[in-house]
Amino acid sequence: LAVAPIAVNEDGLPEDLVCSICMSLPLDPVLTPGDYMFCRPCIEKSLKRSRQCPVTRKACSPGQLKPPEGFVKRLWSSVQVKCGHHGKGCAWTGSVADFSSHLGKCSFARPDKTSDHRRLEDLARQLKSAEMANMEAYNKIKEQQEEITAKNRTIRNQTNQINDVTNQVSGLLNRIESMEESHEEQNASLWAELTSARRALSRQSHTQINHTRHFGRDSIVDLSLLVAQNLTRKPRGLDSGRIFNFVRTCYMDLEKDYSDNPYDYRDNVKMLLATCQSCSWFSPRQQDNFEKWFQREFGTWD
């Protein structure tokens, strides 16, 4: 129904005749097994969500609903109501049981075709505006996707270059691990090669790493590159304590052995600690920590 009836005496309307869901006088009333009255559409919709009475919370199914009979039906039918179009000028009053029949004849219930036409025009304008907005959004997303594709291509190229040098550094570190402590001269030669490889890594990068950015597991190679690019000269404004904290976080992530660590994360941490050990602008205490962490995970430095 387009509108609901209005009880003539709302204050005198018994609570047992009010639907506990919509709080209105039911037009098509049904009773639950607990004899609680609801609008049929309200209770059927409620039972689709949960097979229990909204009032008693006891089990209830659509097949257990029944229309009122006897005294309850007479009590419901005795309620006098006004037409829902009373505000428009309809003067009809009568039993709630007769309201549906009256509404089919009520002259005030006829649809306003002019208003409907206006609404359709408004909806058409809104639809056209939404289509234009969607097209603009699609074009913008397409442009952004093309930019992302180009950036990803550049990143892949740079990553391949860095990985080549990283593999070279990892190979040198493996050789250093296999050497005995007594081979000091050979170790010095390997460390010289490592320094040369790090410098090559620095030259391979086309852009200077921004030391003010955040570094973590996903950017550990960039962190190594930042230190390698500035082994003997700390950049202006760089906070060595801040960089040390990033290195410590990367080491702790390796120590905790997170399941989502990158597959080559151990090698990357090894490269980072070795590079930091060769850097001149960390404090002695920080250098001691680098050495301790390296020995704990990878063995002796020499």
Task: Provide keyphrases for this structure.
mainly alpha, two-stranded antiparallel sheet, 5% strand, 9 helices, three-stranded antiparallel β-sheet, 302 residues, 5 strands
* Helical residues, percent: 55-70%
* H-E string: EEEHHEEHHHHHHH
> Distance N terminus to C terminus?
89 Å
Query: In which order are the strands of the major sheet placed?
Result: 1-4-5
Report what the structure shows.
The chain is 55% helix and 5% strand. With 302 residues, it is mainly alpha-helical. The strands form two sheets. It has a three-stranded antiparallel β-sheet, with no helix packed on it. It has a two-stranded antiparallel ribbon with strand order 2-3. Helix 4 (113-178) runs antiparallel to helix 5 and helix 6 packs parallel to helix 8 (265-277). The N and C termini lie far apart (89 Å).
Would you spell out the secondary-structure blueprint of this structure?
Blueprint: E1 6-7, E2 29-31, E3 37-39, H1 40-49, H2 70-77, E4 80-82, E5 93-95, H3 99-105, H4 113-178, H5 184-204, H6 220-229, H7 240-256, H8 265-277, H9 284-298
Antiparallel strand pairs: 1-4, 2-3, 4-5
Helix pairs in contact: 4-5, 4-8, 5-6, 6-8, 7-8, 8-9
Question: Care to give the gist of this entry?
Answer:
This protein is mostly helical and 302 residues long. The chain has nine helices and five strands, in the order E-E-E-H-H-E-E-H-H-H-H-H-H-H. A three-stranded antiparallel β-sheet has the order 1-4-5, with no helix packed on it.
